[in-house]
Amino acid sequence: MSDLPTLPVTFRPSSTRAVLLTAAVAILVVITTVAMLLKHLGPAERLSFIVTALLLDAVLLVLARPKVVADEDGVTVVNLTSKRRLEWAEILQVTLRSGDPWVFLNLSDGTSLPALGIQPGIARQRAIADARALRALVEARSVADPERPRS
């Protein structure tokens, strides 16, 4: 298949990530500026403003973390607080149904793994294209039973 992406390939919600990282910078700048401009604040109070901004930024950075990385050996799914490495044969199906917040990987152990790196939030068409590309890679690289029906 010539329409398969070249490996390694990283899928991530770029538009969402850009918004989150921009918001993180803006929050840090605005809150720090306010802390410095308020004359009646002492050093500890100013520091508490900045620490609060940094905590908010940490949350935004965690939200910007998800990605799905496909390489020759398999797929690495990085979600908010977890990272899981999968062999190609472990992935039976890649699904993104209408209304789903992100892609789900149906696995050979009977479980389903959310892959937050492909999500149709801000860039729906990009997420659909990424889901199709990952699905094509799984179908091309899986060594699972060739008689298994594909959907």
Q: Helices, strands, pairings?
A:
Layout: E1 9-11, H1 14-37, H2 43-63, E2 67-71, E3 74-78, E4 83-87, E5 91-95, E6 103-107, E7 112-115, H3 124-141
Antiparallel strand pairs: 1-2, 2-3, 3-4, 5-6, 6-7
Helix pairs in contact: 1-2
Q: What does this molecule look like?
A:
- With 151 residues, the protein is α+β, with helices and mostly antiparallel strands.
- It has three helices and seven strands.
- The protein has helices at 14-37, 43-63, 124-141, and strands at residues 9-11, 67-71, 74-78, 83-87, 91-95, 103-107, 112-115.
- The strands form two sheets. Strands 1-2-3-4 form a four-stranded antiparallel β-sheet, covered by helices on one side. Strands 5-6-7 form a three-stranded antiparallel β-sheet.
- 19% of the residues are buried.
Annotation keywords:
alpha+beta, 151 residues
**How do the strands line up in the largest sheet?**
1-2-3-4
Mean pLDDT: 93
The end-to-end span amounts to 18 Å
Q: What is the CA-atom radius of gyration, in angstroms?
A: 20 Å
Question: Which descriptor suits the 3D outline?
Answer: elongated
Instruction: State which percent range the strand residues make up.
Output: 15-25%
Largest sheet: 4 strands, antiparallel
Q: Which structural class do the helices and strands define?
A: alpha+beta
Low-confidence stretches: 144-151
Count of beta strands:
7
Name the quaternary structure: single chain
Q: Please estimate the helix content.
A: 40-55%
Tally the helices. Answer: 3
Order of helices and strands: EHHEEEEEEH
